[in-house]
Structure formats: C-alpha cells, structure tokens
Amino acid sequence: MSKLLRVTPPADTPPAAAARRRRARSGPYGVLDIGSSKIVCLIARNEADGRPRVLGCGWQKARGIKGGNIVDMQEAEQCIRAAVAQAEEAAEIKLTGAIVNLSCGQPDSRLMTIQWPIGGRGVTDADLRAVLNESRRRAADEGRETVHAAMLGFVIDATPGVEDPRGMICETLGAQLHLVDSASASLRNLGVCLHGCDLEIEDLVSATYAAALSVLVEDERQLGATVVDMGGGTTSIAVYGEGHLLHTAQIPVGGWQVTNDLARGLATPIAHAERIKILDGSALDGGDDAKAMVMVPQVGEDEDHLVSIPRSTVINIIRPRIEETLELVRGMLTRWSSSSPTC
Q1: Over the stretch 82-98, which tens digit does the pLDDT of each residue have?
Q2: Three-state SS for 157?
Q3: Model's pTM, two decimal places?
Q4: How far is CA 12 from CA 21, 37, 191, 284, in A?
Q5: Could you give all domains of the chain from N- to C-terminal order, each with its CATH number?
C-alpha cells in the first residue's frame, strides 16, 4: 500500500474551518463522548509540549440514546447538559462548543475512486482539494456526510502506484480515497440536540478512530492491528496498517445485550444484572467457577431474598453472546478483506 497523503480540505468545507479553529486554539476546549451507556465531557488545555491537560470532567448515565443514535431528544439533551455542567464546574470554564466523538448515524467506511481532469498541466494542491471535495459531494448525494477522508494512492494517466502526484504532468488524475461517513439526518439531529444544550459542534471525530488512536502504539499501527471496541450499545472495529486507518465498521450489539441476557437468564433486575456482569462476569472459565457462589436477587421478590448460584452459570450465559459478537466482527473483517483492493 502506498504512503497516505493528507491534504488540507478547501476553505469552503466545514471541516476545514473546524481544523483552523483547532490549530489556532490556545485556550481550553471541550470534548464530548456521547455513547449508548454513558455521556462523558472533558475540558482540557494543551500544554507547551502539545500534550493536553484535563481541567475538568463530567459523567452521566446515558438516556434517550440507543445503538449510538438519539431516540429521545429531551432525555438526551438533559444528560448532555448535566455532563457538560459537571465538567464546567470542575474546570471553572463555560463551554460554547465541543469536539464530538461520533458513533451515531450508522458510521460506514468505504473506498472511493475518482478520476479528475488535469488537462496536460502539473497537479497542484488545488486539484487534490478538488478531489476531496468531489468525494464529499458524492457521499452527500447518498445522504451521507464525510467525517474523515484520506487519499490512499494515485494513478497518473496510465501510471499506477504514485504516492505524491503534486507537480507531475498528466491528462487525468486517478485517486483512491478512504472515507468514513455517517447518515446526514442523524448528524442533523445530533446538531439540534447540542444546539439545545447551547453548544456548537466544532468538529466530529469517529469514535472508532479515536479508540484506536488511544490504545495502539506507533509500532502496532505500522505493523497492522485491529481494535475491537465493545461499548454499551454498539461494537466497532478499526483496522490499521502502515500507520494509517484502513477500515472501520460498527454493529448495534454491545454490553447492554450481555446485561439483558443475564437479567433474563437469572430472573434478576437489570441493575443487579449489570452489577453481576461487572463484578463476576467473564467469558472464560476459571478453575473455581463451579465452587464460587454468586448471590442473585430475584425479580418481584424482596431485596433480601437472594438465590445462590455458581459463577459458572454466569459465565455460561455471557460466553454465547460474546462469541456471537466476535463472530459478527470476524464476518465484517472477512467481507472487508475479500473486497479491499491493494493500493
């Protein structure tokens, strides 16, 4: 695969304006992670060495959000307001906008090939920006909004494998791009919700992309790695190779399904099922699981009415759901690898 070439988007695209604000920002900024199980807000400031220093944080249990999407505007707005207020109080700062970690709108990852007329002159930065604009326009025609776009490789007339075409003379520039996009309608609803919280979306970042950046070291990104991020209502993957994000995908299955399985299988309230999952849950057998006992309250019974079950019962309920989820993940990776061309 050729070296990834990053080009600044043209000035008339919204992400460019957000990028300029971010580069010029010397003061505090907010980051908002809107998940299916929790909403987190961080306020930070970049130090002289470029590292962020957290000034305040807020956390709220998510309501009105399912599978990463907003399903109840008022409840979601209340949760976001509460999380932001906690962070603002701790940091003693009032936010007017935030960088938002995106998981709504069925995020998708795809390759796009674009042929751009050059007309016998040298390729310029303006041509590359025009190619990026064209990819965003095509995504918009399908009701999708581009969150991330990166160029993977180029063809100069009949010459493939070009890494950087700038300055090269040709009639037609062929470009292959990797796009991460999301449903425009879902993003509009997200914007309306945050506007109700008196917040502007300063930028959008794919939640899967952010998760991969946070856990992979540079060698892992170079050699190739896949990150599986299992959240409350979704499980997402990010594939890295040669230092670059190559593919992302998401399925609407997560930790909530495990909790629900436990609640049904053990006839216990949802809150207790969540607690059992956290304290005693596992997908792997241990040597003493058949002897280790777990006390389980029953639905419709008094709180002091507990049933004792072996921990192995808990594991036997959790394991099939985890195996099913990982099979879905493997299926996504298999479909991608079989259809992904080599640049």
Answers
A1: 999 999 999 999 999 99
A2: coil
A3: 0.74
A4: 14, 36, 19, 52
A5: 14-105+186-205 (3.30.420.40), 108-182 (3.30.1490.110), 255-322 (3.30.420.40)
